Amino acid sequence: MDRTSNENIIAKIEESLSVLAVSYGDEIISQIKPILMHNLAHHRVEGFSEGDLSRIDSYVQIVIEKYMSLHNYLFALQVQRDSLAWTQLSKKLNKFAYQFFMHKNFESSAHTYQLAEECAIDAAGSILAAQFPYDIDFDRWARRIIQNHCLRFMRDETRKKEVPADKIVELNEETDYINNSDLVQPLLEKELIDSMDRAIEGLSESRQEIIRWRYFEELSPAEIAERTGKSLNAVYGLQFNALRELRKILLQTGITFNG
After folding, report:
1. Residue 128 to residue 130: CA distance in whole angstroms
2. I want to staple 101 with a disulfide (CB 3.0 to 4.6 A). Which of 42, 73, 106, 157 is the partner?
3. pLDDT of 195-235, one tens digit each?
4. Calpha distance 244→249 (Å, rounded)
5. Do 91 and 68 meet the contact criterion of CB atoms below 8 Å apart?
6. CA proximity to 63, closest of 16, 11, 8
7. Residues 6+ apart with CB under 8 A from 29
8. Which segment of 60-64, 97-101, 111-115, 195-199 scores lowest on mean pLDDT?
9. Cβ–Cβ contacts within 10 Å for residue 149, how many?
10. Prediction pTM value
11. Taking the mean position of all CA atoms in its chain, how far away is CA 48?
């Protein structure tokens, strides 16, 4: 988009917001404007308008309405980390991932369901950090994210099969579990692997256990649930929170991640 077109869209957004402020109030408008600017920077506004500035009014209206209907839910997920909201979303993501693998002709099996669970956990991490654009239905947005993670898994598996077995270099167990979060490359050096060990030691005992059981002993979520007497959803929640805290500790030590 050239500068002139961008300035015209911004002017039209400002005009639409000014008109809608009468109906929705200045507070809502102040919360909507940063979302619209973010969407503009990511070409979502341009994609919707298709060069027709008259469509900007409709776009702004859609964002406001979806913000009013979904903001509390997103706040519960991303800020409050509400356990019930995450449990319900985890089930939905598992379902989306499994359906995607079935569509791609994977075998209907416990192994495929476990792959779906893994992709769902990774997708949950993406949803936690993502900025929802409020111009799309939440389920449709979440489904796109889970499909991207499933496609990434399939791509990575295909690449593994293309590499001769004698050329494959196994990752250290300390770094293997963070592969799907694009953290592997920065942690290949020994100094950073040592930092990972120290970071794990900074977790609570229960979170250290879930990390070591899941990624060092390679127990499935179902096996961990059986060992601990917890439900599967509780295991997913514990794993998600452990990875989130681990990422936070690593960031505090100066380790940054790709993506």
Report:
1. 6
2. 106
3. 677 778 888 888 888 888 887 787 887 888 888 888 877 78
4. 9
5. no
6. 16
7. 17, 20, 21
8. 195-199
9. 23
10. 0.61
11. 24
Residue 52 has pLDDT above 60, yes or no: yes
3-state SS string over 107-167? Answer: CCCHHHHHHHHHHHHHHHHHHHHCCCCCCCCHHHHHHHHHHHHHHHHHHHHHHHHHCCHHH
Q: Identify the burial level of 199 via C-beta atoms within 10 angstroms of its C-beta, where 0-12 means exposed, 13-18 middle and 19 or more buried.
A: buried
What are 165's two structure tokens?
Answer: 């077995």
What's the pLDDT score for residue 85? 87
Alpha helices by DSSP H, listed for the chain, are 3-24, 26-41, 44-49, 56-78, 83-103, 110-129, 138-162, 173-176, 190-201, 205-211, 221-228, 232-252
Amino acid at 95: K
CA-wise closest residue to 256 among 179, 180, 192, 173 = 192
For residue 178, give the 3-state DSSP assignment. Answer: coil
Residue whose token pair is 């969407």? 39
| Residue 102 near residue 108 (C-beta atoms within 8 A) | yes
